[in-house]
Design goal:
alpha+beta, 203 residues, 7 helices, three-stranded mixed β-sheet, two-stranded antiparallel sheet
Length: 203
């Protein structure tokens, strides 16, 4: 995998060597405010992003809220496709209803693949349409070597990006005021729904 880290101060280290150590196959440190690359290793290497994908999903959902397309209180009904994602999930059932706010917290805290797809379908009507929007938005941000095929990062050979591109996307998400409260959430209890009892998650 790779890492995309923002707001790194190379002068504020605990050792004399400011160069970070990483086991990631590709990594990049970027100042989110200026876009300045402070350190990079294989940052332009094309790789599958896995769950880091969800940063773009979160960004686009919040942009849809800002545009009045969605509201945090809006109810989303999980499709069979969303409920069948597998991997890290909140165990959505087909027909289960949650608010956009609850799904956002579920993506951030539990990295819910199913919650990410439910949100994607709420924004674009289909996962395919949302993936196209993701790719187009990435290009607008300068992420020219990125192609998204899904909203959650499940394996797909056509779902690729680079550490540099993901740093650009992460910087844009970090500037999104609507996301900041979610990024600081580490535990969450999902209220009971029409099909499930309450569930608790830890990041």
């Amino acid at each position: 995998g790779f890492s995309a880290v923002v707001d790194y101060d190379p002068t504020d280290g605990l050792t004399d060597d400011p160069i970070p150590d990483t086991t990631a196959a590709a990594a990049l440190l970027m100042d989110a405010a200026t876009g300045t690359v402070l350190w990079a290793d294989n940052a332009r290497e094309v790789r599958e992003p896995a769950s880091v994908t969800k940063i773009m999903t979160l960004l686009l959902v919040c942009e849809a809220i800002d545009a009045g397309q969605l509201t945090l209180e809006q109810t989303v009904t999980a499709s069979a496709h969303a409920a069948g994602m597998g991997g890290s999930q909140i165990y959505l059932e087909e027909g289960e209803q949650m608010t956009v706010d609850e799904l956002l917290k579920s993506v951030v805290v539990s990295s819910g693949n199913d919650a990410a797809v439910a949100l994607a379908e709420a924004v674009s009507g289909s996962l395919e349409g949302f993936a196209q929007l993701m790719t187009e938005t990435a290009a607008q941000l300068g992420a020219k070597n990125t192609h998204f095929a899904n909203a959650n990062g499940l394996p797909d050979s056509s779902h690729t990006t680079t550490a540099y591109d993901m740093a650009l996307i992460t910087a844009a998400a970090w500037k999104q005021e609507g996301l900041k409260k979610y990024f600081s959430t580490v535990t969450y209890t999902l209220p009971a729904t029409n099909l499930s009892a309450a569930r608790s998650f830890n990041n």
